[in-house]
Amino acid sequence: MEPRPNRLPSFIEVLDRKTKPPVDLFSFYIYMRDQQRSVDYLDFWLDVSQHTHLCRHFVSELRRSILVETPDLEKTTSKRSSYVLDHLGDSNDPSGPSTEPHNDEKLKDQTVSAYLRQDNNGSNHSPQSSLGSRRSASAMRYGERPPRPSFMSRNSPTGSESSSPGGRVVARADIRASAEKILYTYILPGAEREVTLPHGILQDITVAIEEEGRDDPEVFDMAKDYTFQAMERDAFPGFLRAKVFGNIVPPSRFLRLVLGLIAFFAGMWAAFVLIFLDKPKHIRCWLILPFTIGVYSLASHQYHMDPLLALAGLSEYTFCNFSRIEEPYVRKMMMRRATMVLFITVSIGVALICLFIFVPGHRL
């Protein structure tokens, strides 16, 4: 992975798995699940991306099998799918489903969709029935990787044979099963993990799959773009604030708030008792302990950051579970902020300790 320039990652870079902890896709998934409570939108987007990659893999494998059977395809008079197949290109993306919203990717998806729509209406030339596809290792020899299950999905998105480690080819029925699974899991009213989408988009997807029999990637294009924009607008800024300017999760913040208040008020109570009992200064030095714990915990809650953990290069992704801060620019910003928080904490703590240790005592 190339070093990132001095900037924060974009949302598409996170989804495309081009970032490192604590701003990687895994951390964003945990954030959507635990803090936004809307992980179904991310799972929907990832499953649609997986479906797109499954379709690309199917058509790419079909192209290879046809070329093996008919090496002089370009000389024949049949042009039903030769143009589509010749202009598809190979999906050799080693990182799984492509998520780059560039024009060439859009064009490739449109080409795949156009072929699959033709394949629904024409003769089904399945890769399993062709000479070149009977050898399951052919995909590996050409550098092709079968599609992977969607990120942290609870169930296999397609049940496709090509998702197995053996690298077997994708069946046409697997694409249909993948589209129907997305429909029944996320789209239909009352679905197990129903996502909120505009009524027009829901209607178009339902009609396309159930009435028109479509299962090409373009069926989900509008819904995919809608969820992408919603997550980018509503969730991603909060994710960056939580992971770049802080390194603890809300349960840890609440625990630090409770601990800080208890320690701070205990220190104040002990300080006034020692002053009004006119205790010597060496006994009052014990006030360092509660004031240090109280001020440190309250500062960690206020700034969403444990400065010592940040200086150690650690970030919390779930309660009491930590990961290393590997993103260079984020680590640099975290170090600066941790130094500032630690300086403020020490300054307030020293001021309070000096005040209650050196103030003259008066026995009541």
Account of the 3D structure:
This protein is an all-alpha fold and 364 residues long. The chain contains 15 helices and two strands. The chain has a two-stranded antiparallel ribbon. A hairpin with a 2-residue loop joins β1 and β2. α3 crosses α5 and α13 packs antiparallel against α15. The longest helix has 31 residues. The chain starts with 10 loop residues before the first helix and ends in a 6-residue tail after the last helix. About 19% of the residues have low confidence.
Q: What is the global morphology?
A: elongated
Mean pLDDT: 79
- Roughly what fraction of the amino acids lie in strands? under 5%
Low-pLDDT parts are: 76-101, 123-166
Structural class: mainly alpha
The biggest sheet, with number of strands, parallel, antiparallel or mixed sense and barrel status, is: 2 strands, antiparallel
Quick summary of this structure?
This protein has 364 residues and is mainly alpha-helical. Helices cover 58% and strands 2% of the residues.
Features:
364 residues, two-stranded antiparallel ribbon, mainly alpha, 2% strand, 2 strands, 15 helices
